[in-house]
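Trying the structure run again after the queue cleared.
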Amino acid sequence: MAVPPFHPVDALPPELRRRKSATQVRAQKSVQDIIAAAAKLIEEVGVDDLNTNTLAERAGVLVRTVYRYFPNKFAIVAHLSQQMTDAWFEQMNDHLALIGSADSDWRDAFKRLVGDWIDNVNSQPGGLAVVQAMGSSPILRDLDKEQFGRIAGALFDNISPHTKLDHHRLRVICHTVTSMMYGFGDSYARIPSTLRTDVGQMTSEMIIKVVEPAFFALDED
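Done. Tokens:
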């Protein structure tokens, strides 16, 4: 069962919503330049020290151009988070198809799920800073909770048809798995680079242990 698409941008709260859609080629390029510059700046200075003057200078646009499309810097962070999360969810659907199949190697699917999560965060400029900002900025927390819920809900929807576990227990498992993935992502920058691969592998093994009760309770009738 595929992860549902993220809610439309116009369903975001006003303070995080794009002010104007870019329709002309030049305008679209300006928006892309703003987003790309913001990702690099967030990686360099973090969200707290991100300011629109520096952002406009880096993007090669006027400050008023930034505000023409985004009401504030948090709206840009929300946009980056949506891009990154949807890119990973597209990969996640392939793994969920295996996780939800009784004939598949669900352990390998979970290993790939965690690996792709980390690869996606690291491959996006400013990805780690965006993940951390989503959980720490009050204005972004509701959006962060929704993204978290999408992951846990997708896991539940794909496992529940194949297990005898009661729904409450399975929801606990799915939220625990999602928490472990988020926790690894939040801690990634603190882990020495020489240990990150091994820590990621150990995290995958721990997640598999958490999920095992659901698959040991498979309905074989």
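The domain at 76-216 is CATH 1.10.357.10 (Tetracycline Repressor; domain 2). Worth checking whether this holds up in the mutant runs.
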